[in-house]
Amino acid sequence: MKRNPRLLLMNSIARVATITAAVILAGSIAARAKDAPVDQLIKKLPSPEKVVKLDPAARDPLAKQIVDAVKAMNFGNAYALSQKLATRYPKSAGAQSLRGQLALGLRRYPEAADAFQKAISIQPNFAFAYVGLALTEASQNHVSAAMSNFRQVTRLYPNADFGWIGLSACAEKLGRKSECLEYARHATAVAPSSFAAWLQLAQAEGISGNQQAAAKALARAKELRRKGPKTNRT
After folding, report:
1. Vertex 97: Cα angle to 95 and 98 (nearest 5)
2. Mean residue pLDDT across the chain
3. In the chain, how many domains are there?
4. Quick check: 49 pLDDT over 80?
């Protein structure tokens, strides 16, 4: 069967996101306990192929080279290749997002923000780029800016957990306990099988003084973790 070129680059981005999150981001961000919600979001980055249209960069061999470099844990080379891909396809939202994803993994925040902003300018309703930009801002403790981008995610995908978890985590950092709890509860409502959503709800209930509810939410999160279901990705 002939392979669909539409998905090649997008699948590459998804695989790079997974590998990068697991190897680079999880380690660096998880080390800071207060950033655990952001860590969970990074670990469950959505597959952008679900929201991206036909991309001319999908046929370029550079995409596969980038994935191979990431698998070999040569992240610097992967990023350099992603820069070449983005330069070669300046109107490709997918190529720009791939560059942003790798820059974020390397904590090159100005470059990551630039790439995600370019992706948004190319494709204004590209939720993956808003997620990447939100995580870039959150990683620098730019909470209000991160919150603004997570709101864009919930506007585009109101029935996905990702944006609501991000809003809850941001509200928590800003000391807005009621908002934190409201957003976390909404995340579990739209994605009842999301481990990250229930984990955030446990945190939100706890800081709100609802210890019994917090314990119940945490137990649900642990149950989902054991079962290992697929998280809600829209």
Report:
1. 65
2. 79
3. 1
4. no
Cα atoms in the Cβ-side hemisphere of radius 13 Å centred on 40: 25
Condensed to tens digits (0 to 9), the pLDDT of residues 143-189 reads 999 999 999 999 999 998 989 999 999 999 999 999 999 999 999 99
Residue 212 domain flag: no
22 to 76, 147, 170, 177, 192: CA distances (angstroms) = 16, 24, 22, 30, 24
Rounded Cα–Cα distance for residues 143 and 130 (Å) = 14
The pairs formed by 132-136 with CB atoms below 8 angstroms and a separation of 24 or more are 132/45, 132/97, 132/100, 132/101, 132/104, 133/100, 134/166, 135/38, 135/41, 135/42, 135/104, 135/166, 136/100, 136/104, 136/109, 136/112
Which residues make Cβ contacts (< 8 Å) with residue 203, sequence separation at least 6?
Answer: 36, 37, 172, 184, 214
Count of residues in the chain: 234
Tokens 């019994």 belong to 212
- Per the structure, the complete domain to which residue 76 belongs is given by 1-33+47-125
Buried b (16+ CB within 10 A) or exposed e, 113-124: bbbbbbbbebbe
Average pLDDT rounded to a whole number, residues 107-122: 96
Residue 74 maps to a domain: yes
CATH number assigned to the domain comprising residue 24: 1.25.40.10
Q: 192-219: per-residue pLDDT in tens?
A: 999 989 999 999 999 999 999 999 999 9
* 92 falls within a domain: yes
pLDDT exceeds 90 at position 37: no
